[in-house]
Amino acid sequence: MNQQKRSIIPDRAWQWLVLLASGSFLVLFFVPQAGGLASMGSLLWDALKSFPGFVADIIDYYKTVPGEQLWPSMLVGAVFGALSTAVVYLSGNTFNLARFTERTTLAVVFVGAFAGGIGTQILLYPAQHCTYASDIDGAQFRLGLLVTALSALILLAPLWALVRRRKSPHQTNTHLPGQYRSYTLPYLFLVPTLVFLGVFLYYPAIQITLVSLRRKIFPLPQEQFACLENYVSLTKDTVYRNSFSTTLFITFFVVLFSLSISLAIAVLASQNIKGASMYRTFLVWPYAISPVVTGVIFLSLFREGGVGLLNYGLDKTLGISPHWLTEKNLAPWVIVAAAVWNLLGFNILFYIAGLQNIPADLLEAASLDGAGRIRRFWRITFPLLSPFTFFLLITNITYSFYGIYGVVDTLTPEGGPRFGPGGESGATNVLIFKLYKDAFDTGAPAGLGSAQAVILFLMVATLTIVQFRFIERRVIYEG
Amino acid sequence: MGNQRTQYGIHIGLILVCLVVAFPALYALQVSTLTLEEAFAVPPKLFPPSTDFFNNIRGLFEGQNFDRLIVNTLTVSMVVVITKTAFAMLAGLAFVYFNFPGKWVLFFVVLLTLLMPTELILVPLSNLIADLEWVKDSPQLALTMPFMASAVGVFLFRQHFSNIPRELSEAAQLDGASPLQFLFSVLLPMSWNVIGAHAVIQFIAMWHQYAWPVFLGLSIEDQMIQVGVRQSVIVGTQTDFGLLMAAGVLASIPPLIFFGLLQKQFMSGFALTRDK
Q: How far is A132 from chain B, CA to nearest CA, in Å?
């Protein structure tokens, strides 16, 4: 259909039409919003103007901070930085302790110590070095050490990347053919992206980290610095722990089922048969259905009594009618089923795209060598699909952590059937659901909610980095 | 003979799979035609469709502002798709066709936002929007501005641009074309598939927005469609499942159309990005 369109309208004209239409659409949208845009402009201007004050605050703080809190934190960071950088530097291909005495090694270790020491201040300045105070309790002090290491990592990670890159000779940062020479234009092109990311992602992310260090009840303005109290109390909170395990449980099964089922379906739909493209079209469209609508459909399917289709069928055939959404062992499975169905279209789409890319001659050669269908799949198809599996793994985990909110909120608006000693835990009270409840309900502890958001971010970040390292290694190993 | 038998086997398997995958949606379509009484009938009315579909749709338009919600969501999603594409293409141009100090740091700054979904920072973000007084004055800015830049788009275009032969930009430079001229007359015509793929992802992501508009506390006529669907769950004491499913069906039609129109671009857009 698109081919026909292109033959009727000349390519160029069609392009200008699209550009003109989108341009005028934007103008029509933004012109009536001039007032709102102006207030954003003045906010940005105020932020710029407050920058000298911000720097002055930092200087003032470091003039008054007690030395017995500042120096130990720097020392911890420096030791951590020196040791870890040494390990990273020496373990290139093989771990070689003999090189430890070389002068470059010493220089690298020194830089590592320096970066680690300075890096600790990135997170410890906003935390006011409170975990190094003499009257702090043990739990907060230990958590403080973790924060110190994490903070040092912010500077150490780029340093490690640099150290590793220096050692491999074929990656240099020189001018490539076809690159423009300009030192102002690239920054200009990046300004829109960076400004929007800065204002609407980085700034709120910093805010939420700061709030997580405070004691605060949601609508009230009073707040108080609380060091890492919120984090420590979360680790002791049984409701939070239950939410944590519920999330891991749901995520594990959602990812397992959605990936395996969609891979099986995609393989079936990629067989060389007549009308395969028609089947593919039929299989990928659930992608366009939202989590909320999915929740609504499953709500109707899993209704209790004879009115719900599923229970009607089960009652007629097996004579059972489970309480799907009010039984604590069943409700999470309904969520899993809904989420898996919601993800199927997207996953099938990407797996089909991946399967189309696998060279047919490779499979043919293997088949001539006498490899059976199943062997060919596990030895050739599956490894070649690994970039797609990796991408889908990340998107599906992100969905199960955050996107699932629409499904949970529609199916179990109260967080699911109650359990636990006081009945405070909900069987589908996943972390993102609890986070919103804690953050927005009147009288909710806002500091605790923010601490939960920070932990959730760290969890997803860790998972992603671990997967990335793992996949990267495997791909290199195979390549 | 045996080969033909496996062919039939695959066909039967695929038809079954399609039916199972489509079943919840077909069921929703069926329920959306039922009246309130029929939706609570025992046994559940599975076939034939009843007569109440247009009645339910009319109920949504008249009683629940669905006309406003659809127009609003469509506007918001299109604005985000267009600006995101423009910003991401500019950023991709900077990352691929320039070499400048701080390139890797800035790229990492963009990369890190992949892990910072808006869902996590709703509280401070809504405070920021409150400071800007957008909720009352310009609700559409509150719904669009936080989503105008994203790492996904920057990655997609960076990847796509770096697969384009270097000779093209060398030739453009010899002809004296500025970077923007190069973008418009060389890169843009080669990027429509990627633009289409990116547009599908971003449009559907925007159309599915739920948590953010809920917590913004907008008045109902400024809301987005998913909030409208969720709010049809409780009408009085008993949920009118016919009406609710009609809402679900109605809310799924625009993304389906958008996806259907750009499906070919979508598939080939990703085909381009994967070979390195």
A: 28
